[in-house]
């Protein structure tokens, strides 16, 4: 019993000492809240128990101070602790409000009040550290395509909750983080998850307050003035009610989401310096000084943006740049499994998107996964599309429009499943939305306000409920705004509706919105249609950053008869415009060299014929046009020879979609490196790849490149039958290590390793492959390699295996002697041998070796037919 009381005494003394120290710190004006929480971070239940004990001890301490005649100190302590307890109550209220706000999210707007729990639907995103805040102006679909073939990226991946934690040793702590990502990739959802996990006491409990500010809402305060304290109080009334004005005492995080949507004049070079948190100024000056670190330098700042706007903040004010890459391939599958309750449907959808390169790439974007799930789930349930699911982006977006229109007709208009799809009201709405999409796309706007809707004759209330197509994003619970903020659910939806608007306007009224001066054509023949598409090509090619590439893809996709059939009811049946596709393709080819001086045009033509196109600077739009021409050409892409365009890695990476769609790809002597192997690995893993033969001879790919190629060769989807790394000895700089990678793949049907400086070690690896039960190796070329007799002995172990299927073996110039002939003779005598052709030319076989093999060749049990 005494022992327990002794322990109790020790615990009480420790508690008293700790609490007295905390009280002393509370009375110290230089001691901050973040220092206190760094000492001890407790979960919410432990925190409540500690607070209860502190309240009791506070009364005791105050009583003793009064007995000691220290009335002033007692009053100060009582006041300080009351503020501390009030602060704790404020934190709880603040977290509770954020939990309510971010607990559920809209995926589109399926029906008023229908929400999805964030924790249920959230699928981990790929976030990488590294890179710079430099601007990337290429079309975002193109950027996604570039990401898609990088399976082994060197960047460091980080977890959502660790966004402010340095993964490597740094000279200074991380204050400001800039996170880039294309539209719809999940940047906003990422910030919401970060906040929700904190509010639910799961992560980052050393932080006292998180303040989220979407730029699309800050735009509405453009003409107002605030102090930093007033700015926070304006958005977060619970902070104001708690009387918290000194944020230096706390560890706080400001989250500014959507820098690309900012319409405030952020100017870091001429904006006045502001250090007083109580001084009023414009919102842009507040933000500029907060990011600079002049205002509240202890605060952490997190900014998200699309790549094109990343350079709005000077690099010296950014401590770390991260990038949201969206879903990895496994996470895509995880998303569909979470999103769809019917697992069979989920598996069907997963299998389907793997068959289409464009769909598979776009599914890196979480919001496109939602669009895909919405469309395919509906089609599978209603058994539509005649058993055919959409394989192109245009088909997918047409079906998306159809699905959303049906939901609107049933959920909001009280219609039936069998009612006509395109009611007069729906037609008017689609026309209005299309007009808005087109006009805002031309201005480069992804967000717009009520005044923009009015100009397009859109009823705000009807637009808000147009399910999933037009999402109303505004906050009215605080009564802060005089206007509402709107945007399409994704940039690609805006681009599709813009293309649909231009298409419908021309087909139904003859007006070409893409002409410099809109004119109504009285012609109804092929000529006017051809002019229409040519003007679309002209407009897209004039874009310096290719921002109309996807718009053009949708517009040309809408010209196909199969897609027009899906839009019956919207179109006035007049003519078949698909017949002009061939002329449009030819026009794009011609336009690649247009708008250039005669000298420049001749230069391009000369370089095209000589295979040195890379000398000429083609714009992203021109590269996209070249890819488009090659992909939609009526001639099947049986052979693609990079030298016809440019023997360079830059051209190869630009033309990668063409490589994937070709059967035979010739890349010999094109100055390719490991980077190209990384891209090719992605092509080989693709379920829709048509690649059968690949010539990589005379390129400096080295062992590291071979390792990347093997990542693709190991895929069950790989159909490659021929790989050439031969010709000039050691030209590919592949060593034994590289051959070990190559030999480890069981899927190969043909392998050419001639002249690659292989040795005995490589033969050991290849022998293992020949013995593999899953080996499909039919032909092995190892000529001009120093494998010698010891290497042949190892190969023969594989040849004698019952699993070996090798039919042709070429060992010309491999320094083989009569000893090696003995090994081969024994292996060929095996009943399991399938070898029919053997090349031992330029070897040192000697008379005895030759005699041994020739004698065996006459044996009827031998399957060998040709001996060189």
UniProtKB/TrEMBL annotation:
The keyword Nucleotide-binding applies. It is found in: Cytoplasm. Gene3D superfamilies: P-loop containing nucleotide triphosphate hydrolases, Ribonuclease Inhibitor. Keywords: ATP-binding, Cytoplasm, Leucine-rich repeat, Nucleotide-binding, Repeat. GO terms for cellular component: cytoplasm. GO terms for molecular function: ATP binding. This is NACHT domain-containing protein. It comes from Oreochromis niloticus (Nile tilapia).
């Amino acid at each position: 019993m005494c022992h327990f009381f002794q322990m109790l005494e020790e615990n009480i003394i420790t508690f008293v000492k700790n609490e007295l120290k905390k009280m002393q710190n509370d009375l110290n004006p230089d001691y901050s809240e973040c220092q206190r929480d760094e000492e001890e971070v407790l979960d919410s239940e432990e925190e409540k128990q500690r607070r209860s004990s502190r309240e009791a001890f506070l009364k005791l301490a105050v009583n003793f101070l009064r007995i000691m005649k220290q009335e002033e100190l007692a009053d100060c302590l009582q006041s300080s602790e009351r503020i501390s307890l009030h602060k704790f109550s404020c934190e709880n209220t603040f977290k509770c409000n954020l939990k309510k706000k971010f607990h559920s999210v809209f995926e589109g707007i399926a029906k008023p009040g229908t929400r999805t729990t964030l924790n249920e639907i959230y699928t981990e995103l790929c976030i990488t550290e590294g890179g710079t805040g430099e601007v990337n102006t290429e079309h975002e679909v193109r950027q996604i395509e570039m990401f898609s073939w990088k399976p082994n990226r060197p960047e460091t991946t980080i977890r959502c909750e660790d966004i402010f934690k340095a993964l490597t040793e740094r000279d200074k702590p991380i204050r400001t983080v800039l996170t880039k990502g294309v539209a719809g990739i999940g940047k906003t959802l990422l910030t919401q998850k970060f906040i929700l996990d904190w509010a639910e006491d799961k992560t980052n409990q050393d932080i006292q307050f998180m303040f989220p500010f979407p730029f699309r809402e800050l735009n509405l305060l453009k003409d107002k003035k605030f102090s930093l304290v007033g700015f926070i109080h304006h958005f977060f009334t619970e902070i104001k009610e708690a009387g918290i004005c000194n944020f230096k005492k706390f560890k706080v995080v400001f989250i500014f989401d959507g820098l690309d949507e900012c319409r405030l004049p952020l100017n870091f070079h001429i904006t006045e310096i502001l250090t007083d948190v109580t001084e009023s100024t414009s919102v842009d000056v507040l933000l500029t000084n907060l990011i600079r670190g002049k205002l509240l330098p202890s605060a952490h700042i997190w900014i998200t943006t699309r790549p094109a706007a990343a350079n709005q903040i000077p690099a010296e004010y950014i401590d770390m740049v991260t990038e949201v890459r969206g879903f990895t391939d496994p996470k895509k599958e995880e998303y569909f499994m979470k999103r769809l309750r019917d697992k069979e449907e989920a598996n069907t959808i997963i299998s389907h998107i793997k068959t289409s390169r464009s769909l598979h790439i776009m599914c890196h974007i979480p919001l496109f996964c939602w669009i895909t799930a919405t469309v395919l789930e509906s089609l599978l349930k209603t058994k539509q599309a005649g058993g055919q699911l959409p394989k192109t982006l245009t088909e997918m977006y047409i079906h998306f429009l159809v699905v959303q229109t049906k939901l609107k007709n049933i959920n909001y208009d009280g219609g039936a499943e069998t009612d006509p799809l395109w009611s007069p009201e729906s037609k008017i709405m689609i026309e209005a939305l299309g007009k808005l999409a087109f006009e805002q796309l031309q201005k480069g706007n992804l967000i717009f306000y009520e005044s923009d809707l009015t100009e397009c004759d859109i009823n705000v209330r009807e637009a808000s409920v147009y399910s999933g197509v037009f999402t109303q994003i505004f906050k009215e619970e605080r009564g802060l705004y005089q206007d509402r903020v709107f945007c399409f659910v994704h940039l690609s939806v805006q681009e599709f509706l813009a293309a649909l608007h231009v298409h419908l306007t021309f087909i139904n009224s003859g007006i070409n919105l893409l002409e410099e001066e809109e004119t109504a054509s009285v012609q109804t023949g092929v000529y006017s249609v051809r002019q229409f598409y040519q003007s679309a090509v002209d407009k897209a090619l004039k874009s310096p950053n290719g921002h109309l590439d996807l718009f053009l893809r949708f517009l040309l996709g809408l010209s196909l008869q199969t897609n027009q059939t899906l839009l019956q009811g919207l179109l006035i049946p007049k003519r078949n415009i698909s017949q002009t596709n061939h002329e449009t393709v030819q026009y794009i080819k011609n336009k690649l060299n247009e708008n250039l001086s005669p000298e420049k045009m001749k230069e391009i033509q000369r370089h095209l014929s000589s295979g040195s196109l890379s000398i000429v600077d083609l714009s992203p739009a021109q590269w996209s046009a070249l890819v488009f021409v090659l992909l939609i050409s009526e001639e099947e892409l049986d052979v693609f020879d990079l030298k016809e365009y440019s023997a360079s890695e830059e051209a190869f990476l630009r033309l990668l979609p063409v490589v994937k769609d070709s059967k035979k790809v010739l890349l010999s002597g094109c100055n390719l490196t490991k980077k190209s192997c990384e891209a090719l690995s992605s092509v080989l893993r693709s379920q829709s790849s048509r690649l059968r033969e690949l010539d990589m001879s005379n390129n400096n790919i080295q062992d590291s490149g071979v390792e990347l190629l093997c990542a693709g060769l190991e895929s069950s989807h790989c159909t490659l039958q021929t790989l050439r790394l031969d010709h000039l000895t050691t030209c590919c700089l592949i060593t034994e290590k590289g051959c070990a990678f190559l030999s480890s793949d069981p899927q190969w049907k043909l392998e050419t390793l001639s002249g690659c400086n292989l040795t005995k070690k490589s033969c050991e690896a290849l022998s293992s492959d020949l013995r593999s039960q899953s080996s499909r190796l039919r032909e092995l070329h190892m000529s001009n390699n120093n494998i010698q007799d010891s290497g042949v002995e190892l190969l023969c172990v594989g040849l004698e295996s019952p699993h070996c299927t090798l039919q042709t073996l070429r060992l010309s110039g491999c320094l083989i002697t009569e000893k090696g002939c003995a090994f081969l003779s024994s292996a060929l005598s095996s009943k399991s041998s399938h070898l029919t052709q053997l090349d031992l030319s330029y070897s040192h076989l000697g008379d005895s070796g030759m005699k041994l093999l020739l004698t065996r060749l006459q044996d009827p049990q031998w399957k060998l037919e040709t001996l060189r």
